[in-house]
TrEMBL record, chains A, B:
One of its GO terms (molecular function) is DNA-binding transcription factor activity. SMART domains: FCD, HTH_GNTR. Pfam families: FCD, GntR. This is GntR family transcriptional regulator.
Amino acid sequence: MVTTDFSPIADTTRRAEIVALLRRAILTGQLQPGQKLNELRISEQMRVSRAPLREAMRELVQEGILTSIPYAGTFVIDVTAKDIDDAYSLNQVLDEFAIERTWPQRDQRFFDELDRRHEAVKQATRNLDTTRQIETALQLHGLIYEWADNSVLLETWQRLTSRLQMYFALHQHARNEPVPAEDVHEIYVQLMKGADMRAAQRHAREHINLDFEQLLSYARSLEQRPSKGA
Amino acid sequence: MVTTDFSPIADTTRRAEIVALLRRAILTGQLQPGQKLNELRISEQMRVSRAPLREAMRELVQEGILTSIPYAGTFVIDVTAKDIDDAYSLNQVLDEFAIERTWPQRDQRFFDELDRRHEAVKQATRNLDTTRQIETALQLHGLIYEWADNSVLLETWQRLTSRLQMYFALHQHARNEPVPAEDVHEIYVQLMKGADMRAAQRHAREHINLDFEQLLSYARSLEQRPSKGA
DNA sequence: TCTTGTTAGATTGTCGACAATCTGATTGTC
DNA sequence: GACAATCAGATTGTCGACAATCTAACAAGA
């Protein structure tokens, strides 16, 4: 019997493509926080009717990166310092849990994937592609969530990730300075390969801590002059 | 200056009402796991066109209680034993975190609300209204999430809650036996009013444990004969 | 009998048009 | 000038119809 592994067919609805397009635009900062999404304009630009566009927007509202006010419009969520702080503190807890669950499941495939994603981050760093750098760094970090074998945890992480990515993108755009070339993930990768789980958990917490501290100070500085929207 | 507290105006779109109707139908078990939702039939029953219905369904898909396959249909999610197990283990972690965050924020208003919700559970129990009993019990438990002052945590909990409610409803429907009349929440409420945070955390973990153990054994017994759908 | 091709019916995905609602500018009144 | 009423334009919400796709039954051929 032939048992080739086929991956599922890609979604081929306009809706799915619109979701992907919009999500990318938001997460990369093309669409800025607070900005209003004009349905007619976007649907014309995408050469699509409003129906699938609106359905796509509903999805992103539930995904937490858009917010909708009936008869007023749909907007990119605003990023407050508190949001970042909330996401951060929850992330600490989830990280600890994810590492704990992943730990006994680690095998060669895990280590290989870890290296692969680490390599992707380094590549993006070399290319000075900050957007891609953020993306790959989050993917590296997300590996423990994919291996924790807990669908609800993974979902939660993915929702968190969206926001984190927005925050980071905003951060980068405003500062417009490349991330340090030194490889901050080296230690993390080594620890995840090692034998001391507690050490890995501790490092994850502290490492993330650093990134967040930067973000927080920046976000607080923004708090004074809120974004005007479109 | 007059500073009356006004609550926000209710959403007055058909979409919002449809979401509420569908959610309720799913969480109470009226719509069973695996069942397909026929758009035309439902839209005719609700006297509504398919557009707002479809948008509502997209929201519930992202909310995690519906699942959609392009050109095939939208279905109520299937409840597996693993789902329950995943939700349970994550819930343990989140509970601990929520209690920790809520603890310093407790005040008279918190205690009053705690009592109010506890009373609601007891009332539902007296009326032998199992559906309402599940609802109120989850609301009692959710108080710590509302007071933890962390929007992301609250969202996560609400998503978890939907599934838990589905699981419980399924459980009740199948067994068709009223929940024990004894008040299992008494100790929890007392501990949340007390001074020993660790004790409260420990109890939450163990108490939930009990409820889940029942659910798990039931769910595993279902694993053999999967629901046929509509 | 098994497999493959065809087709009709049902269902989902998408479209363009209309209705309901909001925004702001304008007008009229004091 | 300040304020309320009115109105036009723009935008969102909803509808009914059509297009694309799937499913299952049936027929044809090996």
